[in-house]
Amino acid sequence: MTLPSPVQEFFSIGEVCTLTSLRPHVLRYWESQFRFLSPAKNRAGNRVYKGREVELILLMKHLLYTEKYTIEGARLRIDQFRKTGELREVARTAARDETLRELTDELERIRGILSGAKQTEERANPK
Hints:
The chain is mostly helical.
C-alpha cells in the first residue's frame, strides 16, 4: 500500500496494520522472527515504525504470502538482497506491487457493485 502523502516519518502499529492489511499479532510475531524488524518505541511504550520498515514489512508479506517462502526462507532471501545491495529497491518494488494489487482488487469490487446496480436498474426499468 502506498504511504500517505505527505510521507509520514513514523507510523503506529495500527497505521501499519491498515497500510499492510496485516493484524498486530502478525507484526509482533515477525519482529521476533526477523531481527532487522525492531521498531522504536515512543515515550508511552508504543511501537513506532519508520517508512523503510513498512516497506520491509510489505516485502516480507510478499515473500511469505505471494512467493510462499517459509519464515527461514524469507529471512535468507532478505539477507541475500541486503548482501547484494538490492534490498531497498526490492522492498520498494514489493510495496508498489502490493499497492497495485490492492487497487486492482478495489476496482474489481467497484465494478461488481456498478454491474449489480446496472442490472438492478435494467430489471426495474425494462425498455
